[in-house]
């Protein structure tokens, strides 16, 4: 049975906060139910929409984060983009607008109050048509300057309402093909209309600096195992080398070389863990010519040499540590 929410009067901040609290509790109940009360990350019948439930905070993890909206119904999380820290909780959402290598961990999770969250992935095509319709998002100097590809914002009742309606479609699977795209479009509309909306709009504004950097990020993902030629990337992005460095760092908080290094190390870790390659083979596969350099950079990035790190991860998977 769908719950009908009465919209607070404009300007009634206390009523809005009370309604957000009620809606957040319902969202938590929905995530708990649809996750089956089992820890982990699970996909849903709605494309690009997944749920997360945890009763204990795992160690720091590393991942390549795709463009997505992340919302927590319970708990909090800390993400790091290079050396920059982003913390969000049940009162704030996180938006990642580029494909970025991040590190992060859940701050609070317990048996009594599990960490409960959701993720809705999207891409530039999902944003582009809305940006064309919403006048003013693409005609300011700020909208064309490269900005961080990750940001947080305060969760509003209108955004939460749209997310809840998407969530409730899991109870009526026959409605998903028709109504889920409408809910997703409204969610993106609410994000674009938020105070930080222009930061999301950048990824879809033709020839903006962020869109050019997005192309460079895509190229780095495709050929991270090859030698980095910054001049070639700059030509492809129609930028000077100095401009590429400045705008790339504005979006990713790191240089192209640091970005490539993180891609390489994360992929090497995945190869050792999932495909049981040794450090020498994994380092060579991702583009390292020097085994000692690979071992040194791996230990600096992950905190342990390759063999010890992989052994620890496997022990954690088996529940032995």
Can you summarize this structure?
This protein has 321 residues and is α+β, with helices and mostly antiparallel strands. It folds into two domains: 13-203, Jelly Rolls, CATH 2.60.120; 207-321, Homeodomain-like (Arc Repressor Mutant, subunit A, Orthogonal Bundle). It has 13 helices and ten strands.
Write up this protein.
There is one protein chain. With 321 residues, this protein is an alpha+beta fold. It has two domains: 13-203, Jelly Rolls (Sandwich); 207-321, Orthogonal Bundle (Arc Repressor Mutant, subunit A). The chain is 48% helix and 19% strand. The protein contains 13 helices and ten strands. Strands 1-2-9-4-7-10 form a six-stranded antiparallel β-sheet. A four-stranded antiparallel β-sheet has the order 3-8-5-6. A hairpin with a 2-residue loop joins strand 5 (76-81) and strand 6 (84-89). Helix 2 (124-133) packs across helix 5 (176-193) and helix 7 (209-222) crosses helix 9 (241-252). The model is unreliable at 1-5 (pLDDT under 50).
Describe the structure using short key phrases.
Arc Repressor Mutant, subunit A; Jelly Rolls; HTH_AraC; six-stranded antiparallel beta sheet; 13 helices; globular; 2 domains; AraC family transcriptional regulator; four-stranded antiparallel beta sheet; disordered N terminus; alpha+beta; 321 residues
Q: Based on helices, strands and strand pairing, what is the structural class?
A: alpha+beta
Our count of domains comes out at 2
The parts where pLDDT drops under 50 for at least 5 residues are 1-5
String of helices and strands: HEEEEEEEEEHHEHHHHHHHHHH
Q: What proportion of the residues form beta strands (DSSP E)?
A: 15-25%
CATH class of the largest domain: Mainly Beta
Q: What is the rounded Rg? A: 21 Å
Order of strands in the sheet with most strands: 1-2-9-4-7-10
Q: What oligomeric state do these chains adopt?
A: single chain
Q: Quote the distance from N terminus to C terminus.
A: 43 Å
Average pLDDT, to the nearest integer? 90
Q: How many strands?
A: 10
Shape: globular
Helix content: 40-55%
Stated plainly, the CATH topology of the largest domain is called: Jelly Rolls
Largest sheet: 6 strands, antiparallel
Count of separate DSSP helical elements: 13
CATH architecture of the largest domain: Sandwich
